[in-house]
Specification:
The protein is an alpha/beta fold. It contains 13 helices and 20 strands. The strands form six sheets. Strands 1, 6, 7, 8, 9, 10, 14, 15 and 18 form a nine-stranded mixed beta sheet that branches. The protein has a three-stranded antiparallel beta sheet with strand order 2-3-12, with no helix packed on it. A two-stranded antiparallel sheet has the order 4-5.
């Protein structure tokens, strides 16, 4: 061996039976852990943020905007009349746009609060909070079926494998609590995109959502699997320390291997979660008054109430993006009433009080100021009766969502649909625009939040998206 070519590392490895090298490897691994093994460490946002986190209340299937938050007297005036509605859905089904029967809203509308915003008695409890809501009534999106539209809502694409919005937020901002996931999806459905709706796609795996439970399973049974170690705390600690030592050696031999780092990240996070998550997930520790506020204990509202309360507890503990899913595991999800719109009433009873309770609870705790609550589905419903029956068809051309807290103007409506509530016509907001605006409120520039993959930079809004400044404080 040429002594002039002997490196410090080689010398440490060969001298003293290699113990010096092991020490150096350990120090290097510690530095690597601090520098790159915690990809969920908080990041500096692009802009001054208005909010720190999002709770997304996903109403799978599409709530009827003309029966909830988009008051259209013309539907009452022309109820029962046969009229021509130019409609992509009809064209896709039949190749033509046949005349359809106008269908009045099944619930009465009234103005509420000091703002005088319109809401129907489909959601009487939410209606009490209209002064806190920013209702966007001019949404439009891509996809006329649930699968493509749901994927587009979550990932900005109807067909391609793309990261979900929660994963992008997790990637862009990191977590506020290193002992918990940055992104959690409560009771997600298996259909209409399934895991892709909370997946990471080409982003590193650490940014994907952590699913708790699934649609169709009671919230009382929703849990993070294998959270409690099977062994005693002492045995679990020894096992984890051994695993960590092996991982350090692996990283030393294969520095920069992303898949290995992702596995190590998951082990590290899982270990930390064992000491933190059980307390966060214990909604039973809440006061009787708080449980009642969410409707926990009442048959109709217990399930979704527990999910909304859990979302508040997670956000309070530092989870960056929590999605609360209301739906089931079929390809025709909850709010999809093609032939029996009255069933909207059953679903409304299940979500109305819990959502109102969440708003009230966040507000009284001072969390609504820096938490965005986003309520809505993948599209809306038609103003006409499908097949002249008792339900409404899909409508991606015009629908409503509402936002509360986190820097959004309270007690306002933005945008308008036509006089039948069918097409967005004034101040139209595309789903890409909504994504861009939500990211902006979190301090993220949607054009700068990119990830290089397969030779080009990708982003949630692709090459689209305009900031809707008018809805921000």
């Amino acid at each position: 061996m040429n002594p002039l070519l002997t490196t410090r590392r080689r010398a440490l490895r060969t001298l003293g039976c290699g113990f010096g090298y092991l020490a150096l490897a350990g120090l290097a691994a510690q530095e690597k852990a601090r520098a790159s093994i915690n990809p969920l460490a908080p990041r500096v946002p692009h802009l001054k943020p208005r909010a720190k986190r999002i709770i997304f209340l996903f109403m799978a299937g599409g709530v009827s905007q003309v029966d909830s938050f988009d008051h259209k007297p013309r539907l009452i005036q022309d109820d029962g009349k046969m009229m021509d509605f130019a409609d992509l859905r009809s064209l896709a089904k039949t190749g033509k746009s046949p005349q359809q029967r106008v269908m009045r809203p099944l619930w009465n509308f009234a103005q509420h609060g000091e703002s005088g915003l319109w809401a129907s008695d489909l959601f009487p409890e939410m209606a009490k909070h209209m002064d806190d809501l920013c209702v966007i009534r001019s949404m439009h999106t891509e996809g006329i079926a649930h699968g493509p539209a749901t994927l587009f809502l979550h990932t900005g694409s109807t067909t391609f494998i793309r990261p979900s919005m929660g994963a992008w937020v997790n990637y862009g901002l990191g977590t506020e609590n290193e002992n918990l996931p940055g992104f959690v999806s409560l009771s997600p459905a298996l259909g209409n995109g399934g895991p892709r709706n909370y997946g990471n796609a080409f982003l590193p795996a650490i940014y994907q959502g952590t699913a708790m439970g699934r649609a169709g399973i009671p919230a009382t049974e929703a849990a993070i699997r294998n959270l409690k170690p099977a062994r005693s705390p002492e045995e679990a600690r020894r096992q984890f320390d051994l695993l960590r030592e092996l991982n350090v050696e692996q990283l030393t031999q294969k520095p920069g291997e992303s898949e290995l780092e992702a596995v190590i990240n998951s082990y590290e996070l899982a270990w930390r979660m064992q000491t933190t998550a059980p307390e966060v997930l214990d909604v039973g520790s809440e006061s009787p008054e708080t449980l009642a506020l969410y409707g926990v204990g009442d048959k109709e509202t217990d399930n979704f109430g527990r999910q909304c309360l859990l979302a508040r507890r997670m956000c309070e503990a530092g989870v960056r993006f929590v999605q609360v899913n209301y739906g089931d595991n079929t390809n025709n999800p909850a709010w999809d009433q093609h032939s029996n719109l009255k069933k909207h009433g059953e679903h409304a009873k299940a979500v109305d009080k819990p959502v109102a309770g969440l708003l009230a609870d966040l507000k009284q705790r001072g969390l609504l100021e820096d938490t965005i609550v986003w309520w809505g589905g993948e599209f809306g419903r038609t103003p006409y009766a499908e097949k002249n029956g008792t339900g409404r068809d899909h409508n991606p051309a015009g629908f409503s969502v509402w936002l509360a807290g986190g820097g959004f103007k309270p007690g306002i409506t933005f945008g308008e649909t036509d006089e039948f509530g069918h097409h967005a016509i004034i101040d139209k907001v595309h789903m890409h625009d909504l994504h861009a605006t939500l990211l902006h409120a979190l301090g993220l520039d949607h054009e700068k939040l990119t990830y290089n993959y397969a030779g080009r930079d990708f982003r949630l809004t692709d090459v689209y998206g305009n900031l809707v400044k008018e809805v921000l404080v």
